[in-house]
Sequence to fold (121 residues):
Amino acid sequence: QVRLVESGGDSVQAGGSLRLSCGASGYTYRIAWFRQAPGKEREAVAVIYTDLGRTSYADSVKGRFTISQDNAKNTVTLQMNSLKPEDTAMYYCAADTRIGRWYETYAYTYWGQGTQVTVSS
Fold:
């Protein structure tokens, strides 16, 4: 059983930064961040493979966001810089499942409850 708890969401001006955290209990193969804006489908943002530390990013956030984990692999952080209004969404972390492409929602069994990020212009 894996439990995920997100934190760090806030309201910020465009160009600002936020750091989101995902606390994880139980073994995870990979942890990904997804986001969903009103009226839009949930989309993948970034992923980290917890055993190797390997990462991937959506093109829309590449160069602005960084995903990382602590040494104990208990916390995954999403550092978000140069935020844009289009980054406004509910952000979720999701864990595990060794099946499927990292950016597909069906690949993940465990989900956090979400944390709201709002970027104003």
